[in-house]
Amino acid sequence: MNLRDYITEVPNFPEKGVSFKDITPLLEDPQGFALAADQLLDFTEGLHIDKVVGIESRGFFFAPLLAHRLNAGFIPARKPGKLPRKIHSQEYELEYGTDALEIHQASISEGDRVLIHDDVLATGGTARAMCDLIDNLGGVVVQCNFLIELSFLNGRDKLEGVPLKSLIIY
């Protein structure tokens, strides 16, 4: 079974010139979904992980499942204004402007070993922001993992020094 067969490319979405990688066919197929989850879990073999951070929004598909299987806590990293309690925030640069990610203040404790999961590694800005936030809170990023990596956008460069795994690389 080739996971790439479950990814549908949608040309010119969300804007002209972008070829969007739609993962919903993978999520809709029980065998494909299970295989992807198992392979993402394999990436963590031998690692002690206390918390799994899933980055909004498509990082939420696999991160809670990984946390459950690793007997770790799940932390949703949200866009600003979505979390109800006191938060820690990390701003990052976009092509045109800035954005931010937030987690609850009580989510990370000193020394927590953290796996960061997102669906796609593109330019690396979002993952870098989350790594910086975890580091600033005293957590230890043990790995970033991704369902898809768009290698032509060089996102790995922003994550130099962080162990990184991707299931499907374009």
Q: In percent, how much strand structure appears in the residues? A: 25-35%
Number of strands: 9
Number of domains: 1
Shape-level CATH architecture: 3-Layer(aba) Sandwich
- Give the strand line-up of the largest sheet: 4-3-7-8-9
| Strand-pairing-aware structural class | alpha/beta
Poorly predicted tracts of residues: none
Radius of gyration: 15 Å
Helix content: 10-25%
State the end-to-end distance.
Answer: 17 Å
Compute the number of helices.
4
Secondary-structure element series: EEHHEHEEEEHEE
Main sheet record: 5 strands, parallel
Describe the structure.
Helix content is 22%, strand content 35%. The protein has a single domain (46-169), classed as 3-Layer(aba) Sandwich (Rossmann fold). The chain has 170 residues and is α/β, with parallel strands linked by helices. The two termini are 17 Å apart. The mean pLDDT is 96. The chain has helices at 24-28, 30-42, 63-70, 125-136, and strands at residues 8-11, 19-22, 51-55, 73-77, 87-94, 97-104, 113-121, 140-149, 164-169. Its main location: cytoplasm.
Write the layout of secondary structure elements.
Layout: E1 8-11, E2 19-22, H1 24-28, H2 30-42, E3 51-55, H3 63-70, E4 73-77, E5 87-94, E6 97-104, E7 113-121, H4 125-136, E8 140-149, E9 164-169
Parallel strand pairs: 3-4, 3-7, 7-8, 8-9
Antiparallel strand pairs: 1-2, 5-6
Q: What keywords describe this structure?
A:
five-stranded parallel beta sheet, PRTase-like, alpha/beta, glycosyltransferase, EC 2.4.2.7, Rossmann fold, 170 residues, cytoplasm
